[in-house]
Amino acid sequence: MYVFLNQLKAMHGNFTKGEDDIFLYHYERRHSSQHGEDGVLEKIFEVIGTTNKYYVEFGVEDGRECNVRYLKEHHGFQGLLMDGGYENKDINLQKAFITAENINSLFEDYHVPMAFDLLSIDIDYNDFWVFQALSSSYQPRVLVLEINASISPDLDQTVPYDPKQSWDGTRYYGASLLAMTRLARSKGYELVYMESSGTNAFFIQQEILSALKLRFYKQGDIRSLYRYPAYGPRLISGKIGPVLCKGHPKGPLKR
Question: Residue 46 above 70 pLDDT?
Fold first, then answer.
């Protein structure tokens, strides 16, 4: 018999919703995103509206599975895609290995507007440092940022910056929810949701949130919105038998 870690399930908590709260969990839906990001973003823009319907997303591979495709195909969004290994001019997917040193010049080269609706970052390692390096002149209204949910929401941790490093398949990558939320707040954004797989967190400009008559459920509450990894299930050896764990495996260097 397998031993299941009930405490992992407990980390997800039992949501209760106030009458005036916008509970994004109910809107998770996957069309061309990795998890439920399509539905979450659709609801966010339904609530806050759009401006130029421009997006930037990088770390999209060939663009078939990404956070903006549904918005492009069903809501008239358009913009820039970038990835270190793929290129497709038909969908404005540009091949670029993105670093903290080149992020602003890439935005300039591809004529990204200073104000736009959505920025999505998923490069599997240096996400925190690239976002930190992005000039404050660029003002996306909504952010989707990859989080390392294997790190406790009480810890402010990131991997050290290394422009040549890429993800090695382990849990050694990225930044904790607390670290990313603190960085986002310093740039004028607030956490509104972390989708149920524990992969991505969603942030909205504080100025927009303050103007809304309604609130997103538990917005700004890191501990309540944190999600334990629900991806990569695998069996490991436990003291009394196999144990089902989720999330990426630990690296051999025990970092």
Answer: yes
CA distance 159 to 176: 9
Q: Which helix (H) or strand (E) holds 93?
A: strand 93-95
Cβ neighbours of 124 (radius 10 Å): 16
Looking at the DSSP bridge assignments, the partners of residue 3 are 243
Residue 129 backbone dihedrals phi, psi, to 5 degrees:
-75, -35
Q: How confident is the model at residue 254 (pLDDT cuts 50, 70, 90)?
A: low
CA 94 to chain centre: 20
In the three-class reduction of DSSP (H, G, I as helix; E, B as strand; rest coil), residue 121 is classed as strand
* Residue 248: alpha-carbon gap to chain centroid: 16
Tokens of 232: 């990569």
pLDDT value of residue 165: 78
Chain centre distance of CA 58 = 11
pTM exceeding the 0.70 threshold for the entire prediction = yes
- Residue 193: closest CA among 215, 213, 171: 215
